[in-house]
Each structure stands twice: as C-alpha cells, then as structure tokens.
Design brief:
By secondary structure, the chain is an alpha/beta fold. The chain folds into three domains: 239 residues, Aspartate Aminotransferase, domain 2, CATH 3.40.640; 28 residues, no CATH class; 127 residues, Alpha-Beta Complex (Aspartate Aminotransferase, domain 1). The chain is 39% helix and 12% strand. It is built from 15 helices and 13 strands. The protein has a seven-stranded mixed beta sheet with strand order 1-9-8-5-4-2-3, with helices on both faces. β4, α6 and β5 form a beta-alpha-beta unit. The two termini are 24 Å apart. The structure holds pyridoxal-5'-phosphate. Pyridoxal-5'-phosphate binds next to α3 and α4.
Length: 413
C-alpha cells in the first residue's frame, strides 16, 4: 500500500482559500479591516459569546487577556499573583503568564483527559490557603473539555477569575455550551493544524464588555481608540466627541489612534489570516465530524493494543485536535522507540508537550519545587504522544496507520 506521509495536520489550499487571498489582495487592504471584523463576528457566533477579538496568535491572545484583567475596573488582578494552570500543555500558556508578570502554579492532571482536575485545584487552594492566587487558567487539551462547572464553582468560592485556554478545542461541547464560552474569558489559536486554521492567528472570546474594550486597546499599543472599526473620519468617534467637549480648542490635534492611555502591544492580525480562517470556519461542521469519525475508526482498529496504549476516549461532543496516545507499558515499548519506528514508516508524531516545571528546560528554575509533586503530568510528559486524525485523512491512510501499529507492536507481544 502506497500512502503519503500521515501528517499530524494538513492545510489544503484549494480554490476557495486561493480566491479568499486574491480578494484580499484586490481589496488593497492588508492590515486589520473588514475580514478581521467578519471573522470576529462569525467566531463569536460559533462559540456563543457576545464578543470575539482577533490577535496575531494564541499566545498574544493570552497576553492581552491577562493584561486586560489587570486594567479591569471590577477585577483589578494584581501583577505578581499566582495563576493556577496546567503543567501539560503547549508551552505558550505558561510563557504568556510569565511574560505578563504573573506566576504560573501547577496542579496535577488526570491521565485520561490530560487536563487539570477540580479536585487538584481545590486541594491546592486549601493547602496553600489561597496563597495569593488570582486566576484559574485551565487548558482543554487535545479538545477534551475541563470540568468547568466544578472549576467555576471553586473559583467563585475563592474569589478567583476563570480564563479557559481553548486553543486546542474549537467546537467542543460541554454541558450544552462550547468551550470558550464557559468562563469570564477564553483564548483560541488558529495555528496550522488546529481544527480552524489560518497559519497564525488567535482570539479572545468573552461576554464582558470591558474585557472586549480593553483587549482591543491592548492589542493596538494601548491606543485610546477602541472602536470596532475606526470611525474617526466620519466624526462619530466617541473618544473624539468626548475630547471635543473637554478640550474644544484642541480638537484638530487630537487623534485617538495615536493617543495612548495604557501600555500595550502590537498584536493585530492581517486580513489574509482572517480571510483564510473564514474559509475554514464555513467547513467547521465537516472538519469536526470527520475528525470524530477518524478517532472512532482508529480506536476500533487499535483496540487490541488498548492494554499497552491508552487510546483516546470517544465522544461526539469532542472536537479533536489530534489522536493522543499514552503508553501504559513503557517496558514493552518506550515512547522514543515507538515514535522512531512510526516516523520511519511515514507516520508523523509529536510528544504530548512534556511537564513544564519538571521537563522543560526554560522552567528549570521550578524543577525542585515540583519534583515528585505532579506524578501524572510527569508520566504523561514522558510517555504520551499524538498522531493525526485530521479531516483530510482517508480510510486507506487510517488503515495504513493501523497496519503500521500492528507491525511495530505485534513484534513486541
Ligand atoms: C493550549 C495552547 N495554548 C496556547 C497556544 C498558543 O497559540 P499560538 O501558537 O497561536 O501562539 C497553543 C498553540 O498551539 C496551544 O496549543
């Protein structure tokens, strides 16, 4: 059987995608404009929130969201406080916390979902007497939803804010709502291979008007203008009118786009990315369903190895980022050997990130503090990996994956 490389993800740039790019080129508008606004509106509708604000990446979205919480009239989250988060995730979650001057604190995960649990969060808060925590930032890894009802309840009891990292869960449904609509604010990433992809791009979703306003300002260097579309030229700009009243002599000289009342970043995105994202969002139903079918098919084909490998659990409520596997019996086969053999046979793999405070060099300053404290995250960080289940994989390719596992693992049994 001859098959192409079985990639972790794929982005097919067909006619629709090419046409979308050409339209942006023809419009002459490259920086944020109507396509960005359209994506924001469609994404808010898709997730079920009042607002969605696009940023240049998911990392940027987390940084804007956390910065907005510092400036927020109601929450006024203090810099330097602790943010409870997951040790098993792409490193960006922790990096964004550190880069906005907060301290990540880690609780252990559940081995089945790879997510932090309400029980571990509660235990941490009780043991540490709340210990200067301000935010709980759980990650819906691989598309699996965290138990948000319980997490929100704990947050409320301790006066904390919840901020979901839904970068890997585009369309997962939890208790009738989509992830990204289950807390005060959430972030998404549209990086390549995510279910809805745009190359690079991120978003914040929220129902909170003040967070919406602040994120729009923070992503544009803290400018005073927070209009969705700049209306300065039409004379309808609210900031302009306010300034006219306060400062009638100086109106001509005031431009809210170049007047800044807080310190922010440039995390804007481009029209191309939003236009590409829109082509994918139109196919969201198909993408999610095809990935679910592929997970189901791979699970059936690999069932005989379910004592050696923990297969992903199936649910038609989960929007799968990929097909994660945990080696239950590393003495039978190590992750390194299994990954090497799969790669040799053209099945692309990725490690499931590594436990941040104990296994990621950038966070080695936390190693001592967390040694032997996160046994599940340590285990998963050493023994879990993922392969693709994306929407372009066809039956013959899935059959090839199953056959390849049989060849590799059959020899060891
Ligand atoms: C859980 C999680 N958070 C944050 C990010 C950061 O997103 P980006 O790569 O778009 O900056 C990612 C990226 O994949 C992610 O998986």
């Amino acid at each position: 059987m001859i098959v192409n490389k079985i990639q972790v993800g794929d982005f097919k740039l067909g006619k629709e995608e090419r046409d979308a790019i050409i339209k942006v080129l023809d419009s002459g508008r490259l920086s944020e404009g109507p396509k960005v606004r359209e994506f924001e509106e469609e994404w808010a509708k898709f997730i079920g929130t009042k607002h969605s604000i696009l940023t240049s990446s998911g990392t940027a979205a987390i940084m804007c969201g956390l910065s907005a919480l510092k400036y927020h009239n109601k929450y006024k989250i203090k810099e330097g406080t602790n943010i409870i988060t997951s040790p098993i995730t792409y490193i960006a979650t922790s990096n964004a916390i550190v880069l906005t001057n907060f301290k990540p604190v880690y609780v252990d995960i559940d081995r089945k979902t790879f997510n932090i649990t309400p029980e571990n969060i509660k235990e941490y808060l009780e043991k540490n007497n709340n210990s200067d925590c301000s935010v709980i930032l759980p990650v819906h890894l691989m598309g699996y939803p965290c138990d948000m009802n319980k997490i929100n309840k704990i947050a409320k009891q301790h006066g904390l804010v919840t901020f979901e990292d839904s970068a890997q869960a585009h369309g997962t449904i939890y208790e009738g709502k989509k992830t990204g609509a289950l807390s005060l604010l959430s972030d998404f990433s549209f990086y390549i291979a995510h279910n809805i992809q745009a190359g690079e791009m991120g978003a914040i979703t929220t129902d909170d008007d003040e967070i919406n306003r602040l994120v729009r300002k923070i992503k544009t260097n803290g400018r005073m203008c927070d209009c969705k579309i700049c209306v300065r030229a039409t004379g309808q700009c609210v900031k302009l009118k306010k300034h006219e009243k306060e400062n009638p002599k100086n109106v001509e000289d005031f431009d809210p786009r170049f007047s800044h009342d807080l310190i922010g970043y440039n995390f804007k995105t481009m029209e191309f990315q939003a236009a590409l994202g829109l082509t994918q969002l139109k196919k969201a139903g198909w993408i999610i369903k095809k990935r679910q079918e592929n997970v189901k098919y791979l699970n059936e084909g690999l069932e005989e190895f379910s004592d050696i490998l923990q297969l992903p659990f199936y649910s038609n409520k989960i929007s799968y980022l990929a097909y994660p596997l945990l080696i239950n019996k590393p003495n039978t086969i190590s992750r390194k050997n299994l990954r090497t053999e799969l790669e040799k046979k053209n099945v692309e793999t990725r490690p499931l990130f590594g436990c941040i405070p104990t296994q990621q060099k950038a966070y080695s300053y936390l190693k001592k503090e967390y040694e032997n404290k996160l046994p599940n995250a340590d285990y998963v960080g050493q023994n879990a990996f993922y392969i693709g289940c994306h929407q372009y994989l066809e039956r013959n390719e899935l059959d090839y994956v199953i056959k390849t596992f049989k060849e590799i693992l059959g020899k060891r049994l």
